[in-house]
Amino acid sequence: MAEKGAEGAAEASLTAAEKQLRGRRQELDYWKQNAARLRRRNRLTGLAIGAFVVGMFSYTILSVKQERILDELDDEAKIHIIRGPRTGTNS
């Protein structure tokens, strides 16, 4: 209890600039203590976003290639339709 009263008296005697400086120091200490955890989270987030981008790019390239193959198959089908069915009478 006596310690709380002493702290309160010390708080009251601080000027606004000293309070601001003390707050900044506390904030700097907080960031120093948690920097490693934040870096780890940032790396994981970056890797997740990177994996998503690479996956989306790969999927897009693959689907474009499939469209080209389908276009070629459609062209072949059109040729066969134009030629007509192959039967013994018209081959």
TrEMBL record:
<dbReference type="Pfam" id="PF09813">
    <property type="entry name" value="Coa3_cc"/>
</dbReference>
<keyword id="KW-1133">Transmembrane helix</keyword>
<dbReference type="GO" id="GO:0005743">
    <property type="term" value="C:mitochondrial inner membrane"/>
</dbReference>
<comment type="subunit">
    <text>Component of 250-400 kDa complexes called cytochrome oxidase assembly intermediates or COA complexes.</text>
</comment>
<dbReference type="InterPro" id="IPR018628">
    <property type="entry name" value="Coa3_CC"/>
</dbReference>
<comment type="function">
    <text>Required for assembly of cytochrome c oxidase (complex IV).</text>
</comment>
<keyword id="KW-0999">Mitochondrion inner membrane</keyword>
<keyword id="KW-0496">Mitochondrion</keyword>
<comment type="similarity">
    <text>Belongs to the COA3 family.</text>
</comment>
<protein>
    <recommendedName>
        <fullName>Cytochrome c oxidase assembly factor 3</fullName>
    </recommendedName>
</protein>
<keyword id="KW-0812">Transmembrane</keyword>
<feature type="domain" description="Cytochrome c oxidase assembly factor 3 mitochondrial coiled-coil">
    <location>
        <begin position="30"/>
        <end position="76"/>
    </location>
</feature>
<feature type="transmembrane region" description="Helical">
    <location>
        <begin position="44"/>
        <end position="62"/>
    </location>
</feature>
<keyword id="KW-0472">Membrane</keyword>
<dbReference type="InterPro" id="IPR041752">
    <property type="entry name" value="Coa3"/>
</dbReference>
<comment type="function">
    <text>Core component of the MITRAC (mitochondrial translation regulation assembly intermediate of cytochrome c oxidase complex) complex, that regulates cytochrome c oxidase assembly. MITRAC complexes regulate both translation of mitochondrial encoded components and assembly of nuclear-encoded components imported in mitochondrion. Required for efficient translation of MT-CO1 and mitochondrial respiratory chain complex IV assembly.</text>
</comment>
<dbReference type="GO" id="GO:0033617">
    <property type="term" value="P:mitochondrial respiratory chain complex IV assembly"/>
</dbReference>
